Amino acid sequence: MFDLNGKAALVTGASGGIGGEIARVLHGAGAKVGLSGTRQGPLDDLAAELGEGAFALPCDLGDDDALKALPKQAAEAMGSLDILVNNAGITRDGLMMRMGDDDWAQVLDVNLTAVMKLSQASLRGMMKARWGRIVNISSIVGETGNPGQANYAAAKAGMVGMSKSLAQEVASRGITVNCVAPGFIETAMTGKLNDKQREGMLAQIPVGRMGTPDEIAAAVLYLASNEAAYVTGATLHVNGGMAMV
Amino acid sequence: MSEGDIETRVRKIVVEHLGVEEEKVTENASFIDDLGADSLDTVELVMAFEEEFGIEIPDDAAETIQTFGDAVKFIKEAV
Predict the structure, then answer these.
(1) Where O-(pantetheine 4'-phosphoryl)serine occurs, residue numbers (chain B) (predicted)?
(2) In the prediction, which pLDDT does A196 show?
(3) Judging by beta carbons within 10 Å of its beta carbon (0-12, 13-18, 19+), is residue A212 exposed, middle or buried?
(4) Do B40 and A173 touch (CB under 8 A)?
């Protein structure tokens, strides 16, 4: 089950906690992995850790030309590009009353527009191969909203609508498009919370703990596999029951 | 590249992509109405023509390419 031998996956945001784990798990299932992120150091470290079949592909998703070239670079490095995991994301939190235009635009650019462009540039090869997987990492916040994150929530909700549309467009070509929506996961992003915020959060989670990056990676592995061929346009919520949608 | 050569190469792409018999790919054959293409097939065909002939086919031009004859005519002018 979930064997990815012979497949090649590009993971954005691979220098982060969740992205790195996704790359590890896909590589562990036999896939070649392209590791994209802005910071060269962590990408090189991860590529060295994984060894054969792992390629560091640094890219600033805010740079339009670099972004559009990335899927081609990945396909050249790995021989093909069969699985795209759009995991990279940024936050620029603030109450909407006071949210600057830049904070809105940057979050939408990186978290939504870049996903559209990377998907678009990856599709040609997938269409020819009559097989492809696009897995977009959304967020529970895209479903529930969150004060201080109007920009982030808008981008993550937009990602879900975009994924459903694309899923319908390319289903007949053996390409599926799905989202994974994490709840609170132990990463650098949630590590910034103070004890009181952390307690308040845990009280809302029936499972009673934060999730771990490997629990997100497992969901990605499933959606990337052959076995998930009949799942498309779906959002898989991995949130400990925090929101049952 | 001779004009007959272009026609042969376009026909080959259409036959391979849509899985139709060569005889059906006539001058006035409509990709969608006669050759069973869906909208995604027409996008793929245009991308295949671009690749084969090293040309760019803008979206508004692509919309006018409805038949095999349209495609051959456009490509002859573009190459």
Answers:
(1) 39
(2) 86
(3) middle
(4) yes
